[in-house]
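Q: For a teaching handout, I want to show students what a protein-ligand complex looks like in token form. Below are the inputs, and the small molecule is tetrahydrodeoxyuridine. Please produce the holo structure.
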Amino acid sequence: MINQKKISFDITVYDSLTELKNNDQNLMSAAVKARQKAYAPYSSFNVGASVLLENGEIIEGNNQENASYPSGLCAERVAVFYAGAKYPSMKIKAIAITAASLNHEVSEPAAPCGNCRQAISEYEFRQQEPIRILLMGETGCIIECDSLADLLPLGFNSSFLN
Ligand code: THU
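A: Here is the structure, written as tokens, with tetrahydrodeoxyuridine included.
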């Protein structure tokens, strides 16, 4: 028997930062500040990520590039790995991500790469509570997703290893 199923998810689109809830404005501002400190001399594509923990603390990260290109790391992973290293058992409530290029205006919300989606999903699966994701370019709208799992349908997690 063949069963066709549809996977869909909801997003919220905000036209501007001022439409975000107060705390989310702060979180995205932290991501913008982190973005401005990115080390991206090879791509000129600066990404900032800010992680909101359940204790209210915000941990920031940005992309760190390397002359040996694959040795660099994306902003999202720098941020979540730092959060995991500093607070090994603290839940993550939300992550804000923003990207800007020195070569053109990024007017679409930043799209986290597949590796970063997988890395964040590890934390979401482990804490068994959704991580909200906020995405923004340099200008333009902001997209809010209720859970990282929405961005990684049929994802791989540790349950497959048991
Ligand atoms: N980058 C991120 O930091 N996050 C992503 O999700 C996509 C890409 C960085 C990696 C590299 O330093 C630059 O953007 C260009 O790919």
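A: Two things your students might notice: Residues 22-35 form the longest helix (14 residues). The two ends are 28 Å apart (CA to CA).
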